[in-house]
User: Fold Fic family protein from Leptospira koniambonensis.
Amino acid sequence: MPNYAHISFKPIWLINEKTVYELGQCEALILTLSETPIFPNYRRQLLHVSLVKGAQSTTAIEGNTLSEEEINELIEGKELSPSKEYQAQEVRNILEAFNTILTQVIDGNRPLLSLDLIKELHTKVGKNLGEIFRAIPGQFRKENVVVGKYRPPDHQNIESLLNELCHWMKNHFHFEKGQSFAETVIQSIVSHVYIAWIHPFGDGNGRTARLLEFFILLRAGNPDFASHILSNFYNETRPEYYAHLDKSTRTGDLSEFIAYAVKGYLDGLKKVMATINKSQVEIFWRGYIHDTFSHGLLTAKNEKVNKRRRNLVLSMPYDRPVSIEEITLLSRELTLIYKDLSDKTIDRDIQELIRLELITEISSNRFQINQNILKKALPRKAQKK
Assistant:
């Protein structure tokens, strides 16, 4: 078999101190995400967003132009215009692959990397794509190809190269014997790059590589609602993605690609954590409001009045002030409730919410929820000097 210098099946990478630190941060965030209770409805929403972003990103890298809105329409069973049917099928395939992998991993089916697994992932990528898809789903290419300036290995060497890859993955990363978090992340990234290098199929190699990366992370305990992170990062930084991939191909050194991917993984985990933290704050705040109206000293004895005031503060946004003119238009329900009430009634309602310390007036006729209540609910820590 010819010698492909960059495809060495050796750990040709150095993990610098910054990347080691970032991997530690990733592990801490994964642990926190895994142990944070989330309401089932919100968890389903997070997973839905993750799958949509993941499908949109991994296909967009290959030129698919469907938006997240259009992908949501597909999930809802709506038909897109005939001119977009091929792109729609590409996305359906990835969504189906994501869901199949999720189900298999949850059910305990966590196989090692194998030729059958790689072929199975490619079969999902190419399903029902017809002749435009320049490959037979699940079958290795039968001819030599050139990808830009890169000439992948001879087609006759594909099977032996993939067998060696699977053998190396098993021995070097030893999933079945247990592996560290850092080893899991590095294995997922290295597997991705090696599939791109070997380029075993006529089409769909990138999507197959990213599906494999997704599978390895999920298999090791990556939360399902964080499954889109790397594909999304690669898509958002597409020029860097291709530049790092090209450099690693020329040198055979994966150090920079790993550092790049780990940084993106960390940034994505931070965004997911921030989203969940925001939901936790919203849950606390709603509970605090209900508790105040259940046990607080209210000036009104009329249940209808108190319910109206409670709905008013529940409708206020968490992150910005609102004017007196806007405050009764925050929801359709509020608009219907207040349309026949006087300005004095609105003012009394607002003053009661201020007295209960649920909202504050930050300037003339501009109000926001009482941020001090939220801050007091956070753990206390020493002030910075």
About this structure: Residues 101 and 107 are 10 Å apart (CA to CA). The chain has two domains: 17-276, 297-376. The first strand starts at residue 322 and ends at 323. The chain has a mean pLDDT of 92.
